[in-house]
Amino acid sequence: MRVPRPALLRTVAVTTAVALGAVMVSAASANAAASGQIRLDGVGYAHDETKIGYLMAPASSEGARFTVVDTAGRTVLAGKAGASLGSWNAGYTAVHPLDFSALKRPGSYRVTVSGAVQASSATFKIGTARELFGPIADKTFDFYAAQRDGGDVVPGKLNRQPAHLSDAKATVYDTPKFRPDDQLAEPLKPTGTTVDLEGGWVDAGDFVKFTSNTAYTIGELLLVQREGNRDRTLASEIDFGLKWLDKAWDEKSKTFYVQVGIGVGSPDLGILGDHDVWRLPETDDKLQVKPGDEKYFIKHRPVFRAAAPGEKISPNLAGRAAAAFALAAQVEARRDFRKARYYLEQAASVFAQAKTTDVGQLTTAFPHSYYPENSWTDDLEYGATQLALAGYALGDRRAGDWATAATEWAKAYLGSGDQDTLNLYNTSALGHADLVKVLRTKWVRNAQVTEEQLIGDLKRQLNKGVTRAATSPFRTAVDITAFDVATRSFGYAATVELYRSVTRDRSYDAFGSQQRNFALGANSWGLSLVIGVGPRFPYCPHHQAANLSGSTTGGEKILVGGVVNGPNAEGKFASLGDLPGGGVECTHPMAAFDGQGSRFVDDVRAWPSSEPAIDYTATGTLALGLTALR
């Protein structure tokens, strides 16, 4: 589980008042206590999949009649609400499933409930998976464009401008040391070298860049591209991300640069970090600073290495970076052999640099608590598997050795006891699905795992979700009082697609669509967790550029395609603090729909729920992209 980055600005904690009031999403009446709410996937449903909506009612309403009507008002299907799946909160003591799976005809529809409880849904669509989810997957590509840093930016809806051009000659520093509160414990110590790390994607609502998250993101985007998505924006963003990752891995000196910028500085040391200043990124280049000034590291951002030149590097980094380069080689093998060979060599060299004994604490970010990953055999399985596939595609004699290594790391992962599922901290599903394909070719010598074991672990991951979903009124498989709800929901949906691709078994399809449904609006808030998607989505993301340059009411100038964290434990919102200096006030309370210890706070200060990130979005891209390509 991710331990969150601190809020972007340290502020005096105050008790917020965002729990007051409610936004009525597709309400049938202004009186929420006397009416119901219908929650659906805000995008729609594929014609051949299970279609479940939910009636939130103030009292048990089992058997309530519902109808599905088309745009002309004609009833096309009728049914009855099922037994309550549980209570949500004091205002909605029953959540009933509405099953309209029999509806298969393409079109636009609404669901209405009549009787003692009345409610009406927003309009949704029925169509093919490609028609519905292809365009939504494509929307997520715009988010990566909005996250671009450096000189090659895409203005887009937020009018992004070139920023952090000083990264082209950034000073490299020794590994920083932190106090228990994650503030710097001592001044940064330069190594005497500089490096060009201009460009790349900023990580989230801040402007720090992390190589681990970038590699994870590129890998998932490349999987969507490899499987058939030919969108030009996707191709452009992949090329942009790869260009920066190629800078981060210096093959000649065997140095891996893992971070640009520092999140939090130290008042005691007179150092401000990225999270201490709320601003547009292009303003950093205009600063007139000299060493010792508190904003020096805002303009002249420090770079940190995974290890000294030539030393072995953290295996999680080596594995996922190798996977990204190797996936690029697979895609380029179809069109540019020379480029494919280059990426293969980058993948091979970084993979060979992995530290696999006496590993110790993994390197992800500085401080480690920002991204406290503790698994790495899954990353090496993922990296070796993609190297094997790239090697075979390019006729490389090392392919068999990489394939064997992939089975060895898969065996190590299966024996590790790791119970996590697909997200930034666990790539095993990505490795397993492709390693099954490798094993079926009979290329592997002395395989250490079988297809059955790999498929069995994919089922283990899915069964974990199925078990948890059975206890949730909205059939979500994730813990709604923990971080990463959206990305983990999409992770389950993506794993279902990966599992089906290697087994042709559709028994988990309904579960997968339920997880996608939850992330796209079939939740108590009626909220899509993808900005710009569905009838209601977060209007106030915790994102500096979106806050200072965008709309605060969901208008045209929004951070389209960004996947936010999602609901979180109510205690995380007890003291959000003051509005950051220079920030634009933005809040749209939704407290009437909070429940079971969970809240979603649509407020610019509410980073535990409303901050988007490239890794969150990448897993959403993968789930939606694979669904569209099935």
Description of the structure:
Residues 136-622 form the Glycoside hydrolase family domain. InterPro entries: 6-hairpin_glycosidase_sf, 6hp_glycosidase-like_sf, Cellulase_Ig-like, Glyco_hydro_9, Ig-like_fold, Ig_E-set. Residues 35-116 form the Cellulase Ig-like domain. This is Cellulase. Belongs to the glycosyl hydrolase 9 (cellulase E) family. The chain has 630 residues and is of the alpha+beta class. The chain has a domain at 1-25 and 525-618. It is 33% helix and 11% strand. It contains 15 helices and 17 strands. It has helices at residues 129-146, 211-226, 232-248, 296-299, 315-332, 337-352, 377-394, 399-414, 428-440, 451-469, 485-503, 509-519, 544-549, 607-610, 614-629; strands at 37-39, 44-46, 52-57, 65-70, 75-80, 94-99, 107-114, 119-120, 124-127, 170-173, 190-195, 209-210, 249-250, 255-260, 303-305, 568-569, 598-599. Strands 2, 4, 5, 7, 8 and 9 form a six-stranded mixed sheet that branches. Strands 10, 11, 12, 13, 14 and 15 form a six-stranded mixed sheet that branches. A hairpin with a 4-residue loop joins strand 4 and strand 5. Helix 7 packs parallel to helix 9 (428-440) and helix 9 packs parallel to helix 11. Residues 9-34 have low confidence and may be disordered.
